[in-house]
């Protein structure tokens, strides 16, 4: 079976945009678990001959989960359970938020590699905005732009090294 890479982060950081960049048209159909809708959020990614399954955890719908924070936590916990490596995504435009810290708290407990991706680094000027995220404690942040397709190769390279 392919290794599993989960993309985790608060809403609106660009998880689905980057997920679509990574999988292209390699969307996979999976069956939903009782109480959890996971349809349309699995795909296949490839980097230098290594293929892996990708999960956009933001698309996971959990029955009865209406509060955002509870939902983010559940998604992060599911990712820790299922994934071999986790891409923790944050947003350079918005900067660090309390929800990012919440996600980090959960990921500290993961006995899995975590790669920190700072999305929305659309131009060189914004590259400086990645540094504040060092304080999350997941090592070197990788600046990417899902919208413009910048840094996706660097991210996949870092992920592939951890698989
Ligand atoms: P998700 O909630 O984490 O899945 O985030 P989405 O992929 O739905 O993106 C949220 C918003 O951010 C959308 O309006 C996207 O167009 C925008 N977005 C995603 N990636 C980028 C990026 O690299 N740069 C910029 N400027 N906007 C982005
Ligand atoms: Mg999404």
UniProtKB/TrEMBL annotation:
GTP 1 binds at residues 9-16, 56-60, 119-122. Signal peptide: none annotated. GTPase that plays an essential role in the late steps of ribosome biogenesis. Belongs to the TRAFAC class TrmE-Era-EngA-EngB-Septin-like GTPase superfamily. EngA (Der) GTPase family. It comes from the Bacteria. Residues 3-163 form the EngA-type G domain. Associates with the 50S ribosomal subunit. This is GTPase Der. The gene is der.
């Amino acid at each position: 079976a392919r290794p599993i890479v989960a993309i985790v982060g608060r809403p609106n950081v660009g998880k689905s945009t980057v997920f679509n960049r990574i999988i292209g048209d390699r969307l996979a159909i999976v069956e939903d678990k009782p109480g959890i809708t996971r349809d349309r959020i699995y795909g296949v990614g490839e980097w230098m001959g290594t293929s892996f399954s990708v999960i956009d955890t933001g698309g996971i719908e959990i029955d009865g989960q209406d509060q955002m924070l509870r939902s983010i936590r559940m998604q992060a916990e599911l990712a820790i359970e299922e994934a071999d490596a986790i891409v923790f995504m944050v947003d350079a435009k918005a900067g660090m938020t309390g929800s990012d810290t919440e996600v980090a708290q959960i990921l500290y407990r993961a006995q899995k590699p975590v790669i920190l991706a700072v999305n929305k680094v659309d131009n060189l000027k914004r590259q400086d905005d990645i540094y504040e995220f060092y304080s999350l404690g997941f090592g070197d942040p990788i600046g990417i732009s899902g919208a413009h397709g910048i840094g996706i190769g660097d991210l996949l390279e870092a992920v592939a090294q951890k698989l």
